[in-house]
Amino acid sequence: MNLEGLKPIVEGLGVVGSPLVMAGPCSAETEEQTLSTARQLAMSGVKVFRAGIWKPRTKPGGFEGIGKEGLQWLRRVKEETGMLVATEVATRRHVEEALEAGIDILWIGARTSANPFAVQEISDALKESGADVAVLVKNPVNPDLELWIGALERIYNAGIRRLGAIHRGFSFYGKSIYRNPPQWHIPIELHRRLPDLPIVCDPSHMGGKRELIAPLSQQALDMKFTGLMIECHCSPDEAWSDKNQQITPEIFKIILSSLVLRNSEQNTESLQALRQQIDRIDTELLDLYNKRMQVSREIGKYKKEHSMPVVQENRYDDLIKSRVSAAVQMGMSADFMKTVLQAIHEESVRQQIEILNQN
Ligand code: PEP
Ligand code: MN
């Protein structure tokens, strides 16, 4: 599928030197909180104001959004500040009410984009409305690129041409410094598959804490994301949802001015030489992987002849520990080395099982 005829989410933003920055509270809570946050953000030059009206909460009993009433507050934000306004939709009714209130940008949340029935319902409502509204599709909670692309296609097929994606990280089980760890290779692959599609980063839901917003935003800009969506609240400590990750408009302004925009039009001659080095090193790596797999297959034959099991836990544990500690001493991260070794090990096991099954 290639998405022909896409139009910018917002004219003039999301191009080199002018990222598309959207900011605003996780939830619109009161008219006062919504307008006060919006006024401060408008003064920092923000062009798109976000606020959740209907909130998908993991557990019942939390604040589930102010509902339809809040749409009128967003309308006031638009009238008073001139900013465009964005909110999350998850059902046909949300789409209809948001469009009726003149919302400019709709986004589909991570829990909703994981559900094709819900995305189809939203797409049908959009198609029936015929509105030229912008729609941003957050990555599904699970790291499934096809599901993400499927959701984008449904919205595109409904006639939406102001279409974009948002990388907000993925759910996981266990410990992490992130609330929803990013998996950058997934939006990178999305960009390779759909080069014209704008991709925004949401460092707030990714990091889940204030101090991760600046570094994640910089990382996203360095990776040429189209823009950022950042949660800001006039008094974050009192926010009714996601308070740990919301920042004040003042802090937002400081972060925004500290971000470095790389100029991708720069001369790439010296980069060329470095890229050639990378190409050579990759060729050597491929050769080494191949040699390693050959040895691994020899081991497989030996194990078969001696009726030994393919996986030997102790050996695997020792191997991971020694390589990871060596990698850390060289300045690489333990997580990175573990991921590489696990992938190599899985392929070795697969090849050895293949040998075991040969006659
Ligand atoms: C949000 O943007 O407020 C939100 C609920 O995000 P996500 O769907 O990424 O959790
Ligand atoms: Mn939120």
Can you walk me through this structure?
- It is a single chain.
- This protein is α/β, with parallel strands linked by helices and 359 residues long.
- The protein is 49% helix and 10% strand.
- It is built from 13 helices and eight strands.
- It has helices spanning 31-43, 69-81, 92-100, 110-113, 116-129, 145-157, 185-193, 203-207, 213-222, 249-258, 269-305, 313-329, 334-356, and strands at 20-24, 48-50, 84-88, 105-108, 134-138, 163-167, 199-201, 227-231.
- The protein has an eight-stranded parallel beta barrel with strand order 1-2-3-4-5-6-7-8, surrounded by five helices.
- Strand 5, helix 6 and strand 6 form a beta-alpha-beta unit.
- Helix 3 packs parallel to helix 5.
- The chain is elongated and about 75 Å long.
- The structure holds phosphoenolpyruvate (PEP) and manganese (II) ion.
- Manganese (II) ion binds next to loops.
